[in-house]
Amino acid sequence: MENWLKAKLLHPLIALLKQGSTPYTLAWSVTIGFVVGIFPIIGVTTVICLGLAIIFRLNLVAIQLVNYLVYPVQLLLLIPYFQLVSWFFGTENPFSSIDQIQRLFNQGFWEATYSLGWLLAEAIIIWGIIAIPIGFITYFTCLNVFKKYVKV
Fold this sequence. Notes:
By secondary structure, the protein is mostly helical. The chain has seven helices and no strands. The relative contact order is 0.14.
């Protein structure tokens, strides 16, 4: 069974990941998949990764694989993003408790949507600040690993 899994799943996946990729493009692919994967708006990362892979001619499989693997991290980071928004911009986090969320939506759907929109816009700014150093660290770490282990 183990040999069959390696032959039918693992080896083709590795071949697909390495197809047409240098260590540099593979490192960029993983970096973009990771950095975009932790974007604070759920549901748009797949399209963003697809667009960036096409524009920069990167490995689409690697980008999407990393993007999907970091999805749980994206969910876990939503609360810290909102807390950082509160701290950085000095605004109240309307999503810090269930009671606050209920009060917000009791005031009206459009008011809640407006508040959420601004909160997400501010979270994107926080993500942009955090994404730059995370991107550099991820890229250079991956590049060193891929130079050592990926043979073109």
